[in-house]
Amino acid sequence: MSNTVSVFGLGYVGTVTAACLAGRGMAVIGVDAKTEKVDAVNSGHSPLVEPGLENLVRQGHSSGLLRATLDASEAVRGSSTSLVCVGTPSLSNGRVQMDHVRAVAAQIAAALRESPKAHTVVFRSTMPPGSTRALVAEFFSGTTTRVLYVPEFLREVSAVHDFLEPSLSVLGTEDGESTAEALEGLGSFDEVLRWEEAEMLKYACNAFHALKAGFANEMGRVGKFLGLDARRVMAALGRDERLNISRAYLKPGNPIGGSCLPKDVGVLAALARSEGLKLPLIEQMMDSNQAHLDHLTRLVEATGARRVGFLGLAFKAGTDDLRGSPMVSLSETLLGRGHSLSIFDPSVNLTRLIGANEAEIQRRMPHLARLMAASAAEVVSESEVIVAAQPCASLEELRDCVRPDQHVIDVNGWRELETLPWRYEGLCW
Fold first, then answer.
1. In b/e form, how buried is each residue of 338-356, taking b as 16+ CB within 10 angstroms?
2. Residues with a known catalytic role
3. How many separate domains does the chain show?
């Protein structure tokens, strides 16, 4: 048990964490309330699509180091450390929903009351500053349980690499001054902060990423209006690593999407409104993103085409995550305005969608199955205008079905499409 970790929540963060820890030789017990996720892990399969993850889960299962259960108490009894990786979705008012985190904290605390022992609880869920302290006061006050906050910085499509080689590793403790030993499996940390500081860091990072992406997209629209290629401009801007720091996200193209950036920017904006703080840039960030999505919609409709094809639907290529995908939003809008759609995304298998991902698509596009095509060639053959969101087909496959009367709108810089005999247009260039 001393080398056993329980991981609560088998979504993107939890499954990657569990599989990578097992890959490092640790015994891991995954915990989730959804039977289908537990069954997937216990049969050696990942409950979601993420490059490299399926193989890690299979290896963990085969070695006997990785298993999953619905029983939270069993997991706590059988481990020395519990990592809490459950989701913190947004409420309708933009504030964060803490129900899942509080439920897990209550389960862990109850299990420790039943079987008192030394135990470490590590919260990794993205939570507003003050959440860990409030959870400790409500569930762990008066106990010997060590509670830490370790923000995660995993990006979809590169989550496994980000876990194994983190760009930033921060530990949150109660006072921010304790010299904490390395956590087994998670390694050492670049810095030790107070709980609240570590919680805020996660939002600060995501808000900065969203800011960079939104700024690049606004520059992209200006560049396009002036007849300039803003991707070249922003690539040059990003080469100044002394002042501009990083080129990550500085690529005009896809509107901000996914389950992290919009949610966390919304949480900050809601917090500012409720506290009377003036954060105009944060407040306007998602308006800017919506304007960028509206710009893409206008480009599609300006072609006059009624048959629209999509190459790529998920938030990012190589994942099946449809939550917050700009292409899902665009599809909804075009369907509502009477366009016919044909969609291809090789990573999206509707029969494998689980949890919040499945719920999102059932709520927004319950008819998606009948719009999905079997190949990129099928989409191109059936469409007048093609929205190329992801490089999900070879040029050879497309070349045989492209027509001169077709229009392609490149969302993310798949510049090879410009060599094919159709009308090519970049979203921001």
1. ebebbbbbbbbeeebbbbb
2. 260
3. 2
